Amino acid sequence: MAWDEWEQLKSKAAESHSTQMQLNQYPVDQGGDGTQGDLVAGHQDLEAVGKAAHDLFESFTLYGGHARVASAAAAGGLKGEGFALGAALDHVTERWSAQTRTLLDACAHISNHLRFTKNQHVADDSYISGTVSSIALLDEGFDDRKGH
Q1: How far apart are CA 46 and CA 112, in angstroms?
Q2: Of 44, 50, 54, 58, which sits with the fewest C-beta atoms within 10 Å of its C-beta?
Q3: Contacts of 34 (CB under 8 A, 6+ apart)
């Protein structure tokens, strides 16, 4: 979406003075069929999100660390030469480090949660399968006793 298109949409929304919530959907000619349905995310979709979060974590750990070290060194050099900019750059470096940790924590949380969810679904499927097969075995026993 282009910036002017975004601005036009904002203006149009402001003109309507609508305070109601609107849920959008794909028009029928763009793949929507007009029916209600559940959100579906397959294993491949979840694995792709988990991999992207893990890759971002790995890459940002490396490159974010380089930026932090270089900025801290520059701040130290500037402060050592008596430049006020050194203290400002030091502050920016501290904020960078805090924001980096927040992003890395979020990436790790996403990746770990998806891994846990995948493992939990496998365990749930196994449990349900065992329960259903036990019921089928139990039913066979009742059928045998009834003479079926």
Answers
A1: 12
A2: 44
A3: 25, 28
